[in-house]
Design goal:
486 residues, alpha/beta, Amidase signature (AS) enzymes, 15 helices, 11 strands, 38% helix, binds glutamine
Length: 486
């Protein structure tokens, strides 16, 4: 087998036994990027020199982290000191951060090798990477299709073996939906579990960082490394961090879901969703029942209002967060005749259409006279949605839903219809509004050979149960063994 095909768990096993060096593994992955990325377009910046230098240094020693010598990609909205960080926006095209995000600091301490910075929708606003200010990433299962978004570059890089694992960010589904479209695993942790320091802010009350990996076990390994309190992020939680890999025995015999109660929300099986997606998700639920889980029907009554509330809250926060790109402090500057015109010209040239749309929507929702009708109302709806989850989790341990109503759509299919694009987040958004954790796991394929994703949602800070259930399902169903033929 080619080395680039390895999972973290497999590679770490070989590295710890001195049967594989970080250098050989990194060389293989960088070669794969060289051969494939002109077709897929997963990376904005490839950091081959950094990766090879790190791998060379790590080959000399041995580490005690399973990430020792593992080549990983980082979504290009997280700061790596000295490496261009663009957010796929023209306004930050040449921005080189003078500091390092907490997540990459932790990965560095664990011994990862940075393969590069991956493509996204500009400032993480979108569901297809078509809003990138530079180029659109292709789905490795079918290059005429979108990889999902906004972490489409990270998901495509994992699916096409152009890294062993990647990091994404998720504000309304941006880890889970691309993972679902690309047939890989994506985990959005509980809000506050992973520090956001050094993540370029989109909507600060919703943003979370998490892993995109080939298996559930790999997601647990990465989460072990990146979770934990951080004084540089005032919203980060200082909880004790369990070992997320604890429930993952390699032994198939030992796998069962006895004692786990899974809820199926009626509101997530809607008219208009793809029948093949529904069939695959229902089959996955059947498989979890066969493994011993108890499956019951539940209600999340305010689901229908989630997309509307999200697009008010997220745009409001974005309009405030993006005020800092004024052509003065950092990024692009287009000089006008005076200060105000410099601001205006810089922002007119630097931001793409979707980012401008959101700044305008958010500014409107926050403006006096409209604040109570829009922003305040949306916050009230958010509370109702969170309460729906609190009630449901009195009855069940895990909630299972589709990740997305469709499989990967064609590039261009929804690009001119923002509302259609917003609706593709319908199953992922409530999770961010409530702040709970959720994982997307491959659960089959449609008749066109495109992957379908199963979403498992857990209680606040109960990543362990969705990882356990996800791992058990993944091992018994075996979909992870099917890879794109690219
Ligand atoms: N697709 C959603 C949006 O456009 C979510 C994006 C994200 O999670 N960053 O806002």
């Amino acid at each position: 087998m080619e080395l680039f095909r390895l999972t973290i768990a497999e590679a770490a096993g070989l590295i710890s036994k001195n049967e594989l060096t970080p250098l050989a593994l990194t060389e293989s992955v960088m070669g794969r990027i060289g051969a494939l990325d002109s077709l897929v377009g997963a990376y904005i910046t490839v950091t081959k020199d950094i990766a090879m230098e790190q791998a060379g240094r790590l080959s000399a020693g041995s580490g005690n982290s399973p990430l020792h010598g593992i080549p990983m990609a980082i979504k290009d909205n997280m700061c790596v000191k000295g490496v261009r960080t663009t957010c796929a926006s023209k306004i930050l095209e040449n921005f080189i951060p003078p500091y390092e995000s907490t997540v990459t600091t932790k990965l560095h301490e664990a011994g990862y090798c940075l393969t590069g910075k991956t493509n996204l929708d500009e400032f993480a606003m979108g569901s297809s990477t078509e809003n990138s200010g530079f180029f659109t990433t292709k789905n490795p299962w079918d290059i005429t299709r979108a990889p999902g978004g906004s972490s489409g570059g990270s998901a495509a890089a994992v699916a096409a073996d152009m890294c062993i694992a990647a990091i994404g960010s998720d504000t309304g589904g941006s880890i889970r939906q691309p993972a679902s479209f690309c047939g890989v695993v994506g985990l959005k942790p509980t809000y506050g579990l992973v520090s956001r320091f050094g993540l370029v802010a989109f909507a600060s009350s919703l943003d979370q960082i998490g892993p995109i990996t080939k298996t559930v076990e790999d997601a647990a390994i990465v989460l072990n490394a990146i979770a934990g309190g951080d004084n540089r992020d005032s919203t980060s939680a200082h909880n004790a961090i369990p070992d997320y890999t604890a429930s993952m025995s390699g032994d198939l015999q030992g796998i069962n879901l006895q004692g786990i109660k899974i809820g199926i929300p009626e509101e997530y099986f809607i008219d208009g969703m793809d029948r093949e997606v529904e069939a695959a998700v229902r089959a996955a639920i059947g498989e979890m029942r066969r493994l011993g889980a108890e499956v019951v029907s539940i209600k999340l009554p305010h689901t229908a209002y989630a997309v509307a509330a999200y697009y008010i809250i997220a745009t409001s926060e974005a309009s405030s967060n993006l005020a800092r790109y004024d052509g003065v402090k950092y990024g692009m500057r287009v000089s006008g005749s005076d200060l105000i015109s410099t601001y205006m010209e810089t922002r007119a040239k630097g931001f793409g259409q979707e980012v401008k749309r959101r700044i305008m929507l958010g500014t409107y929702a926050l403006s006096s006279g409209y604040y109570d009708a829009y922003y305040k109302k949306a916050q009230q709806v958010r509370t109702l949605i969170k309460r729906d989850f609190d009630e449901a989790f009195k009855l069940v341990d895990v909630i299972a839903t589709p990740t997305s109503p469709t499989t990967a759509f064609k590039i261009g299919e929804k690009a001119d219809d923002p509302l259609q694009m917003y609706l593709s987040d319908i199953f992922t958004i409530s999770v961010n509004l409530a702040g709970v954790p959720a994982i997307s796991i491959p659960c089959g394929f449609d008749s066109g050979g495109l992957p379908v994703g199963l979403q498992l949602i857990g209680r606040h800070f109960d990543e362990a149960v969705i990882l356990k259930a996800g791992h058990a399902y993944e091992r018994s169903a075996g979909w992870y063994e099917r890879r794109p033929s690219i």
